[in-house]
Amino acid sequence: MRRQHIGGAVVTLAALLAVGTPAAAETDEEVLRELKALRNRVEELESWKADRQAEDAAPDDLARAVEEYLATRRTDGPSGGIVVAPRSKRIEFGGMVRVRAEMQRRTPTGPDFEGRHTNEFVLGRVRLHAKARIEKNLSALVELQDARVWGSEASTAADGDGVDLSKGYIDFEHLWGNTDVRLGRQAMILGDERLIGAFEWGNTGRRFDGVTVFHHAEDAEYTGFAYRLAEGFADGDVSDDDADLLGVWATYPGLVDIGTLEFFGIWLNDTRDRPGEPVVGKLPSEGHTAYGTFGARLFGSDEDSGMDWDFQGAMQDGEFAGDDLRAWAIRGELGMTIDDGPRAPRFGVEWNYATGDKDAADGDVDQFQVLFPTNHGYYGIHDLASWSNINAFSANAGMKLSDTVSMKAAYWYFKLDQKEGGWVLASGKTLRPGDPSAGRSLGHELDLVVTWKQSDRVTWQFGWAHFWAGAFARNTEPGGGNTSGSDFAYLQTLVTF
């Protein structure tokens, strides 16, 4: 209402100017004086109105206050005072708080440092971010994170060092036509995250330091990246041995009629010496790691039949710790969603296979290597397997229990590709080395996950898994204990703002 009054006043004054001589004016000089005063008043009101509109278009009071504060911050320097952060066009603030309680009972990953096989703990994560629209086609984001295990500090009065830079990057939009560039510390999600992912299930997530280039074509999306994983010079390594991750990921949504095609090539180069495989009768030699991972993925769905599918294959070639690496992996998934009103149940089956190493002393590596994925839930929520030395089958089902509650259940059977190869967890860590006399059956797992979306900002999730140990898990258990299987459960709440 107030804005309408302002607009009316401006229109009225403009009309007076257009009419000509005010009634109170008796001479030409008085008319000119009156017109000048009216014109000045119109300019004042127009300026005031523009300021109010700019404030309405700006972010909230907190964001505006921060901008104004930063705009006045100055630092002494050779130039005699430089503005640290000039006023941006817009600054957005946000964040999240996540709390997850976990319980692990007789886990095959082993007892804790006190010898207990049952552990309960609570993980907490807090993130705060600010995204600044600096100017047209230029923005920046900074995200701080505190991730910790509850009760891990020395006392309730201790100040632990848990805060870190989760993200910090600059976005150059349309730097070259339809090409965007992101420079700095960032999360990266490629495809279904089985090779490169942000690993948000982990309490800290996974971040990369480097540059990402996004090119948007009319019928395709291209992503190229170059990340520094380890800097030898920073670690005091006089030889400056580094580790880098390079790659290209191409997505074609309409190249084929049956779905979206993705092609990828990823190159890992680690010049740090690592011990390789021992050759019979000799100690293992040390060498560098440099290998490529190349492959393709096809996924899609058909609305009429309710079918969906996802197929992916990859091969690796190069050197691993100085030894020749030749490995491959393949997977397939089929699902069907039944049109049953709001519940829409889906039933699916999938198979995941990745080669293992049959001979760990021949100087050749045949086991598919885990890169930097988000593996949680892809091979059971217990996270006892990964896309390496595995032959895994699953049958699963999911449905909506209500508008806000959904459920998914899955059965898994895990078998090692080669019993001489190692047991690799979802984290990529080798839990136990291969044993030719242990058998190939890793075990069975049953999963249940229930998700409640309380609101747009609040989500709850409960998960439970039971693992029945197979021959390999039982026969390689240190001390012969923990052969009856294990349980894993969690309850998580996530609030975003």
Task: Describe the structure concisely for a colleague.
This protein has 497 residues and is mainly beta. It contains four helices and 23 strands. Helix 1 packs antiparallel against helix 2.
Can you walk through the features of this model?
This protein is mainly β and 497 residues long. The protein is 13% helix and 49% strand. The protein is built from four helices and 23 strands. It has an 18-stranded antiparallel β-barrel. Strands 1-2 form a two-stranded antiparallel ribbon.
Please write out the topology.
Blueprint: H1 2-19, H2 28-57, H3 61-72, E1 74-75, E2 82-83, E3 90-105, E4 118-135, E5 138-149, E6 163-176, E7 179-186, E8 208-216, E9 221-230, E10 243-256, E11 259-275, E12 286-302, E13 307-320, E14 323-337, E15 346-354, E16 364-365, E17 390-400, E18 405-415, E19 423-424, E20 430-432, E21 441-453, E22 458-469, H4 471-475, E23 486-496
Helix pairs in contact: 1-2
Summary keywords:
mainly beta; 497 residues; 18-stranded antiparallel beta barrel; 49% strand; 2 domains; two-stranded antiparallel ribbon; Porin
Strand content: over 45%
CATH T-level topology of the largest domain: Porin
What CATH architecture of the largest domain would you give?
Answer: Beta Barrel
Put simply, the count of helices is: 4
What is the mean predicted local confidence, pLDDT?
84
Assign the structural class, choosing from mainly alpha, mainly beta, alpha/beta, alpha+beta, or little secondary structure.
mainly beta
Q: How many strands appear in the DSSP assignment?
A: 23
> What is the count of distinct domains?
2
